[in-house]
Amino acid sequence: MAGVLAVAEVRDGALRSVSREVVSAARGIADALGGAVEAAACGGPGVGGAAGPLAAQGADRVVGIEAAGWEPGRVDISAAALAAHVRSRAHAAVVFAATGPGRDLAPRVAAKLDRPLLTDVTDVEVDGGDILVTRPVFAGKALARVRAKGTPVLLSIRPNVFAVTESPRDAVTEVVSADPAEGTGGYRVKGFEASEGAALDVSEAEIVVSGGRGMKDPSNWHILADLREALGETAALGASRAVVDAGWRPHAEQVGQTGKTVTPRLYFAMAISGAIQHLAGMRTSGVIVAVNRDADAPIFGVADYGIVGDVFEIAPRLAEAIRELQDD
Question: What global pTM score does this model have?
Answer without folding.
Answer: 0.82
